[in-house]
Amino acid sequence: MPELPEVETVRRGLEPAMVGKRIALADVRRPNLRWPFPDGMADRLTGARIERLRRRSKYILCDLDTGETLLIHLGMSGRMLIAPPNAENGRDMLGQFHHLHPAPEKHDHVVLDMEDGTRITFNDARRFGAMDLFATELGETHKLLAVLGPEPLGNGFDEAYFKAALKGKNTPIKSALLDQRIVSGLGNIYVCEALWRTGISPLCKAGGISGKRIASLVPAIRQVLAEAIESGGSSLKDYRQTDGELGYFQHSFAVYGREGEACKTPDCAGNIKRVVQSGRSSFFCNTCQR
Ligand SMILES: [Zn+2]
C-alpha cells in the first residue's frame, strides 16, 4: 500500500506532466472505485487546465481552472501511469489520442489525455482507490479531508501539539501514530521505523511515555519520511513508479519486514520481533525499544 512518501513521489512525478496543461479528453471507464465517481466526472474534467498539484496526507489534489479540485487516492493498489506523447505520429493531434496510445487495459479505470498527447492513467486492480471533485473554495471541508490531523512534515506537527494529542491516551503508541486524526498520512512502515529510531516500543501506552521521549519522536518521524521521499519512496509488491516502468526505488528499512534479523542499533544484540497490533504487523527490537 502506498504510504505518504510514495504518494509524494507520485505527486512529484505527475507535476511536470500535468501542471499548466489542459485535459483534452477524460475517459472514465467505470462508474466507481471504492465509491461512486461524482456525476459527470468526465465532462467536468475534459477541457480543464491543472493549475496546481498538492498533497494532503495521502491524497493528491489537482486544482483546476474550472474552480474544482480533483481528489485522487491510490488506495491499496492504485497506480498513476504516465505515457509520453508518441514522438513519431503523436504531436499536435488533438482528438486523435486513441490512435497514439495502446488501448486501455482491464484495470485502467480513468484515462486523462493531456493536450500535448501525454496520457495519464489511473490503474487500480483492487479498486480501493478513489477520485472525487469538489469546489476548490471549500478547502478542507471535504469529508475525507476534514477528519485529518496535521501533516507530519508541516508546522502544525510539533512537540507541544504532539504531547497534548497523546496526553491520557491508553492506546499503544503504535495505534496512536496510525490514528489519522492525531497525525495524518503515517502508515505502518514508517511508524515502525520512527519508533525504532527513538527506542520506544510500539507496545508502550501512548499517554505513559515521557515528554522527552515523545519530543524525540517528532524529528524521528520527519526524518524517516524525508529520507524516504528523498529516495523516491519504497518499493512494495506491484507498486510502480509514475513513469510507468516496473518497480519503485528500493528503500532499506531498519526494522520493517526484518523479523528474526539482527537489530541495527549499534551495540544491540537483539533480534527484530514481529507482533500483530490491531491487525497490523509491528516490527521492533524488544532489547533496545522499551
Ligand atoms: Zn535493538
Automatic annotation (TrEMBL):
<dbReference type="Pfam" id="PF01149">
    <property type="entry name" value="Fapy_DNA_glyco"/>
</dbReference>
<feature type="active site" description="Schiff-base intermediate with DNA">
    <location>
        <position position="2"/>
    </location>
</feature>
<feature type="active site" description="Proton donor">
    <location>
        <position position="3"/>
    </location>
</feature>
<dbReference type="GO" id="GO:0008270">
    <property type="term" value="F:zinc ion binding"/>
</dbReference>
<keyword id="KW-0863">Zinc-finger</keyword>
<dbReference type="Pfam" id="PF06831">
    <property type="entry name" value="H2TH"/>
</dbReference>
<dbReference type="InterPro" id="IPR012319">
    <property type="entry name" value="FPG_cat"/>
</dbReference>
<keyword id="KW-0238">DNA-binding</keyword>
<dbReference type="InterPro" id="IPR035937">
    <property type="entry name" value="FPG_N"/>
</dbReference>
<keyword id="KW-0862">Zinc</keyword>
<feature type="domain" description="FPG-type">
    <location>
        <begin position="254"/>
        <end position="290"/>
    </location>
</feature>
<dbReference type="GO" id="GO:0006284">
    <property type="term" value="P:base-excision repair"/>
</dbReference>
<dbReference type="InterPro" id="IPR015887">
    <property type="entry name" value="DNA_glyclase_Znf_dom_DNA_BS"/>
</dbReference>
<keyword id="KW-0234">DNA repair</keyword>
<feature type="domain" description="Formamidopyrimidine-DNA glycosylase catalytic">
    <location>
        <begin position="2"/>
        <end position="129"/>
    </location>
</feature>
<keyword id="KW-0227">DNA damage</keyword>
<dbReference type="InterPro" id="IPR020629">
    <property type="entry name" value="FPG_Glyclase"/>
</dbReference>
<keyword id="KW-0511">Multifunctional enzyme</keyword>
<dbReference type="InterPro" id="IPR015886">
    <property type="entry name" value="H2TH_FPG"/>
</dbReference>
<feature type="binding site">
    <location>
        <position position="169"/>
    </location>
    <ligand>
        <name>DNA</name>
    </ligand>
</feature>
<dbReference type="GO" id="GO:0034039">
    <property type="term" value="F:8-oxo-7,8-dihydroguanine DNA N-glycosylase activity"/>
</dbReference>
<dbReference type="GO" id="GO:0140078">
    <property type="term" value="F:class I DNA-(apurinic or apyrimidinic site) endonuclease activity"/>
</dbReference>
<comment type="function">
    <text>Involved in base excision repair of DNA damaged by oxidation or by mutagenic agents. Acts as DNA glycosylase that recognizes and removes damaged bases. Has a preference for oxidized purines, such as 7,8-dihydro-8-oxoguanine (8-oxoG). Has AP (apurinic/apyrimidinic) lyase activity and introduces nicks in the DNA strand. Cleaves the DNA backbone by beta-delta elimination to generate a single-strand break at the site of the removed base with both 3'- and 5'-phosphates.</text>
</comment>
<dbReference type="GO" id="GO:0003684">
    <property type="term" value="F:damaged DNA binding"/>
</dbReference>
<keyword id="KW-0378">Hydrolase</keyword>
<feature type="active site" description="Proton donor; for beta-elimination activity">
    <location>
        <position position="58"/>
    </location>
</feature>
<keyword id="KW-0326">Glycosidase</keyword>
<comment type="subunit">
    <text>Monomer.</text>
</comment>
<dbReference type="InterPro" id="IPR000214">
    <property type="entry name" value="Znf_DNA_glyclase/AP_lyase"/>
</dbReference>
<feature type="active site" description="Proton donor; for delta-elimination activity">
    <location>
        <position position="280"/>
    </location>
</feature>
<dbReference type="InterPro" id="IPR010979">
    <property type="entry name" value="Ribosomal_uS13-like_H2TH"/>
</dbReference>
<keyword id="KW-0479">Metal-binding</keyword>
<feature type="binding site">
    <location>
        <position position="126"/>
    </location>
    <ligand>
        <name>DNA</name>
    </ligand>
</feature>
<comment type="similarity">
    <text>Belongs to the FPG family.</text>
</comment>
<feature type="binding site">
    <location>
        <position position="107"/>
    </location>
    <ligand>
        <name>DNA</name>
    </ligand>
</feature>
<keyword id="KW-0456">Lyase</keyword>
<protein>
    <recommendedName>
        <fullName>Formamidopyrimidine-DNA glycosylase</fullName>
        <ecNumber>3.2.2.23</ecNumber>
        <ecNumber>4.2.99.18</ecNumber>
    </recommendedName>
</protein>
